[in-house]
Design goal:
mainly alpha, globular, about 290 residues
């Protein structure tokens, strides 16, 4: 059950590209960052009606790193890099996590997790087939975004908030509010939203962001950051699969090899856990009710 919830995050996040292509291409990406975060967080707060699950400084830190800064850097990369290159750089998350744990906690990478990360990264590289024409500002922004989300992931694991739903909601609200001045400065006032964009917005707000971020943050606590980062290889796999199904893209032979490597890394991780199952913490209540 824990792994089934964990895969919701990369699957819903991987649908972002198809949702944008089909419904949201005319909207400003900077305001899309606001619309993705703020309404989802407010919707979750209406359901939970809870206070801050962490202290104010910690709440501001994870909201800025995991939402505001990450979204801004992600869109800088999106404007300056081919999507394949950005996706491949983002897939370095497991390696960045292990490096940060080594540098800040003195925790040396496990050989198995290192091999899983390299195998999955190789699969993503083949799947997305990145070009060699790299804009180094865009590449730096994507790598910085990966470092920001990796650091926030380690903070959320270390601080162990009991209310995962509330932690997700408040991050999205605070991060969304932080994004408003940047969106206004970079793109001007928000534009009108057409009826054509409404289905895409509903998908991005409810499933992609609210459910996706809740599943990701919950899984950090339950499975641990390293395992969840390996599961995130399903993000580009989902994006490519939906591109084939919905946007009439085609796959080359080497991309099928990449899919095989990604699936092999996930099967290897799950199979090896059967022999030495990690200590899984008791999950918080899955969905809150009004109080």
């Amino acid at each position: 059950m824990h792994y089934l919830i964990a895969v919701l995050a990369p699957i819903f996040w991987g649908s972002t590209y198809s949702a944008v292509a089909l419904f949201l291409a005319d909207l400003s990406p900077y305001w899309m960052a606001v619309w993705r975060a703020l309404p989802a967080g407010l919707l979750m707060l209406l359901i939970s009606r809870r206070g801050l699950p962490l202290s104010v400084p910690r709440m501001l830190a994870v909201s800025f790193f995991n939402i505001a800064a990450f979204f801004l850097l992600l869109f800088v990369a999106a404007y300056r890099l081919p999507g394949a290159v950005a996706g491949t750089l983002g897939a370095t998350l497991p390696l960045v996590l292990m490096l940060l744990q080594w540098l800040t906690e003195g925790k040396r990478p496990q050989l198995k997790m290192l091999m899983l990360a390299l195998l999955g990264l190789a699969g993503v590289g083949l799947l997305l087939n990145p070009s060699t024409d790299i804009d180094w500002i865009g590449a730096g922004a994507m790598l910085a975004a990966t470092v920001f989300v990796a650091q926030s992931t380690l903070w959320m694991k270390r601080w162990e908030a009991k209310d995962i739903f509330g932690l997700t909601a408040w991050q999205l609200v605070i991060g969304g509010v932080m994004l408003i001045p940047f969106a206004w400065l970079l793109a001007g006032p928000p534009q009108a939203i057409s009826l054509h964009a409404v289905p895409g917005l509903i998908w991005v707000i409810v499933l992609n962001t609210a459910v996706g971020y809740w599943a990701y943050i919950r899984s950090i606590t339950v499975l641990g950051p390293n395992r969840q980062s390996i599961i995130m290889f399903l993000n580009p796999l989902t994006a490519v699969t939906l591109g084939v199904l919905w946007v009439n893209e085609t796959l080359q032979p080497m991309q099928w090899v990449g899919i095989g490597l990604i699936l092999a890394s996930l099967v290897w991780m799950k199979w090896s856990d059967r022999g030495a199952r990690p200590v899984v913490k008791q999950a918080v209540e899955p969905l809150p009710v009004n109080r």
